[in-house]
Design brief:
The strands form two sheets. A seven-stranded parallel beta sheet has the order 3-2-1-4-5-6-7, sandwiched between helices. The radius of gyration is 21 Å and the shape is elongated. The chain is an alpha/beta fold and 376 residues long. α7 packs parallel to α8. It folds into two domains: 193 residues, Rossmann fold (3-Layer(aba) Sandwich); 178 residues, 3-Layer(aba) Sandwich (Rossmann fold). It starts with a strand and ends with a helix. It has 14 helices and 13 strands. Helix content is 42%, strand content 16%. The longest helix has 18 residues. The structure holds ligand GMT. Ligand GMT binds next to α1. The site of ligand GMT has 19 residues, from α1.
């Protein structure tokens, strides 16, 4: 199949999932065309089966806001025509489903029919899409998609609760390439560069937005380090980083907490981590937790949104109510303070990640594409 994928090319989970999906599809023989405003961060390989088309938005002083949707839909029309694309898969409804639908309509004028699959990722429904300023356009573009998928049951429920959606929503969870981590030896998994041998390593990876509750991460760690000798690795960039750094300073933990910034080498950090913290306000899936679990890192998370579908309570880690810092810290300590318990949770976290193996999930997208092509 010839598939065009639209996504955000940044470090966010939706872009990562879209890129990994495209790469997996290309390995399975499909021709995949990424249409984005920048090369997706995880798109390290370009091959004859993978192409990247950059969406350029010319600056014009009249525009207070540059019309990205217009540029994207025009680019889609050109790419679809030039490369004989058979199916369009947009990740994150805003504004991709909207621009995709416009491209579909323009192509239809020329007698070209192309099915569009929209994958909902979370904030496009819960935090952003739900805003009254966007809601009518988001509802419209979801309803105009030929197929809609969501990354968790919880996100599907949220979508049905918040929007008047008429299209069926199929839940296809996010995935991870388990074999990649089993094969890798991680020669550069250099724990000794990061912590003393008797210190446990606790990690948090996110975009440091409010929704991630990075302050809670620091507060949980503050409690943990009173009982267990440990270090905290804070990976990522975002608006809450400075506040978190200040809190670390105020709590006198500067020598125990490392802010590593944005990284393309998350695997090298997760490979030596003992515990992962994700106390988010909401999380449609929690890809970061799955990425930790595939490295056999247990997860302490909130029990919100799709997190209970990924992190299994008392098995791959523990889940508590949003903001319950002391319960999260106590659970973390209960895992970390005994080597045997830690080993058990690490094994169980790895086992849980295998339920989301790429080889089980990607064929589900292929099936959906086939259905869409037959119908078109
Ligand atoms: O919040 C983020 O981490 C970024 C955001 C995005 O749109 O890229 O992530 C959303 O999509 C991910 C991939 O499906 C999910 O794993 C995240 O849980 C989801 N974020 C939220 O729901 C807050």
């Amino acid at each position: 199949m010839k598939i065009a994928i639209v996504c955000y090319p940044t470090f966010g989970g939706s872009g990562v999932v879209a890129t990994e999906l495209g790469l997996a599809l290309s390995r399975r023989g499909h021709e995949v065309h990424f249409v984005t405003y920048k090369q997706p961060v995880r798109l390290e390989t370009i091959s004859s089966h993978i192409r990247f088309h950059e969406v350029n938005v010319p600056e014009y002083p009249l525009f207070h806001y540059q019309p990205y949707e217009l540029a994207l839909s025009s680019k889609l029309v050109n790419v679809i025509k030039n490369y004989g694309i058979e199916l369009l898969h947009v990740h994150y409804a805003i504004p991709h489903a909207y621009a995709g639908y416009m491209a579909k309509k323009m192509l239809a004028e020329e007698g070209i029919e192309i099915p569009m699959v929209t994958t909902l990722h979370g904030t496009d429904i819960t935090l952003v899409g739900n805003h009254p300023f966007y809601k009518p356009a988001v509802t419209f573009s979801i309803n105009k998609s030929d197929y809609v998928t969501s990354v968790s049951e919880s996100l599907k429920d949220d979508t049905l609760r918040h929007f008047d959606v008429k299209t069926d929503i199929e839940v296809i969870p996010n995935f991870i390439d388990v074999s990649k981590f089993q094969k890798k030896t991680f020669t550069d998994c250099q724990r000794e560069l990061m912590a003393q041998s008797d210190e446990k390593i606790i990690t948090h990876v996110s975009n440091f937005r409010k929704v991630k509750r990075v302050d809670d991460v620091v507060k949980i760690f503050f409690e943990i380090q009173k009982s267990v000798s440990a270090r905290l690795m804070m990976v990522g960039e975002g608006p809450e980083r400075e506040t978190a750094e200040k809190l670390v300073r105020d709590l006198g933990m500067r020598d125990k907490v490392l802010f590593l910034g944005q990284s393309n080498e998350i695997d090298k950090i997760l490979c030596f981590s003992d515990l992962f913290l994700l106390p988010s306000e909401t999380e449609s899936f929690g890809l970061a937790a799955l990425e930790a679990m595939v490295h056999s890192v247990p997860v302490i998370s909130s029990n919100t949104g799709g997190l209970p579908e990924v992190n299994k309570d008392d098995f791959s880690g523990y889940l508590h109510d949003v903001g319950d810092v002391s319960a999260m810290a106590n659970s973390a300590i209960s895992i970390l303070e005994t080597e045997e318990v830690l080993r058990k949770f690490k094994r169980q976290a790895g086992e849980t990640a295998r339920d989301f193996d790429i080889n089980m999930i990607v064929p589900r997208y292929e099936e959906l594409y086939k259905k869409a092509l037959i119908k078109a």
